[in-house]
Protein 1
Amino acid sequence: MPVRNRFAEMLPEITEWRRDIHRNPEILFDTHRTSAMVAAKLRDFGCDEVVEGIGRTGVVGVIRGKAGDKVVGLRADMDALPIHEATGAEHASQTPGAMHACGHDGHTAMLLGAAKYLAETRNFAGTVVVIFQPAEEGGGGGREMCEDGMMDRWGIQEVYGMHNWPGRPVGAFAIREGAFFAATDVFEIALEGKGGHAAKPQETVDTTLMGAHLVTALQSIVSRNADPVKQIVVSVTAFETSSKAFNVIPQAATIKGTVRTMDPAMRDLAERRLSEIAAGVAATFGGTIAVDYQRNYPVMVNHGEHTEFAREAARAVSGDCDDAPLVMGGEDFAFMLEERPGAYILVGNGDTAPVHHPEYDFTDDAIPAGCSWWAEIVERRMPAA
């Protein structure tokens, strides 16, 4: 079955929802306006149950079809990013310093469109739970919703997610089984030395020099410690010192960064070696270095049977579904896939700016394909007699 006519008819309406969300971006858990809008629409659609405040500001809607025991969860994310928009679009962000630079406005609108259709037709045997999640962009909203008991409360048996993908043709799908998106850890390193006059370096312990050696040495984790056939990225993204003057050697410095891995052993290796290298640099230069390493999102792993099912649903909508590449970005849908089996798919956003870029915008023409995939998942997974 190709893109459903109902979603082509609904495109102007869903587009306006999407652009309204885009104009009013909200970051992390502060999705109060978006969450209220989502809950109001779900109630207008006639959902059997609508609950707000799951995982702080998440929203859950329940749609019951014909008699059946199966319960399928469908998830979209709602939060924006702290980026100043540069699209120049009529529907551009009205909030300085915040924009939907990852397409979560589109994800939310597509799942709302699917929810409206499923509440109208109810042509499935079982229950659909639509999940609207805050704080995907670093806040762990998916983890929060799971820890709030969402899966058990509604008896969700399997769960599916979707993300738009710039560079793929509009409405074209791609997926992969197994590890898909990387584990995303962060580190903050505090360096302490002995500050002093820049003309008397012999009287100091220079944290700038310590930090420079540390940044270089950290690259050896990938180049000399990790198995070269394993995926791992170590990136230093910030280096700040306590000095603002040309003639002062700083007493302290801070280095921040991220580690991305696809394998638990590589994750353990990176954390261990980062601390060992820091200790070695501190000993070499006579300063002190404290490492704060925080494990953030786990590897997002698509389950085998559910991946193939999601692929078949995509083929039914668009005629094909490609193999997706490994992605070293993180995705906190990983927490939901740790709780329940399921799969995550990519849908093409066309030739647009990349996500997390100030000129990115979600492509509204992808909406019918995305909505159709959600509907196909439900009606194929829970066919009515």
Note: Residues 183-297 form a domain with the Alpha-Beta Plaits fold (CATH 3.30.70.360).
Protein 2
Amino acid sequence: MSAHRYFQLDVFSHRPGGGNPLGVVVGADDWSDEAMQAFARWTDLVETTFLLTPTTPQASYRVRIFTPQREIAFAGHPSIGSAHAVLEAGIAMPRDGRLVQECQAGLLPVRVEGDGDARRLSVQSPRSRVLTCGIDAQPLLAGILDGVDLGALPPAFVEGGRRWWLAEFASESALRAWQPDHAAIGALAQASGSLGLCAFARCEGDEFDLCVRAFPAGVGIVEDPASGAANGLIGAWIAEAEPHGTLARGYTVSQGREIGHDARIVVRIDADGAVWVGGCTRTMVEGVTRWLL
């Protein structure tokens, strides 16, 4: 049995228990691929990450990210949560307000702003590109969105660390009330090699700018309470399609309310097009895990 420090976190948390859960194992250099996958399956969280020694001096730490089914190259909430665990465990300290995460998607900077419960961490999303756009870009997409009053931007298939179909709804209320066909979204994900569909709408109140709902059927999840990578792709799509719009330099997202969560995600977009996705993270459980390697 091998003992390692373990964190269970609430990422993009607007209130305790409102964000997206994440498990983090510290110092997992002695864990095999099979042990990591088995532990991630056992935790049954959306993702579990494993902190390791970096392979390059440019990186502050290295992370591997696992869903219960498989390893993935990048995801937003595991990146934010892993950086939180790095700081809490004293593995690395920010330089000029930044950490550098090494993962399968490359070296990604993480901004560190503030302290304590008010500390906000933001990861720079991998650069994205639009693969195709339009409601008729994929026959399955048209069926899923049949009867939906769409918003200003056309649906788009966007790649950047992950692949997602994006669709803007005409109203926040319509998106929050939507009951999608999850089997159809799963078929879309399988046919296109994507995670699934992420829908968004511009908010009608002042507290948030965007409402987001994500359906990553491609990894066996019905609905995600807080999606960093998907929100990064939405930010890039909005900045490209509306470069002079009110959201082109950033906005605040509400996600997860429909499934009992209350995540707050902050998206910032630099003048050069770099997209940063961030928020606050809370440590909910801290202790030691003993896993047979």
Note: The two ends are 7 Å apart (CA to CA).
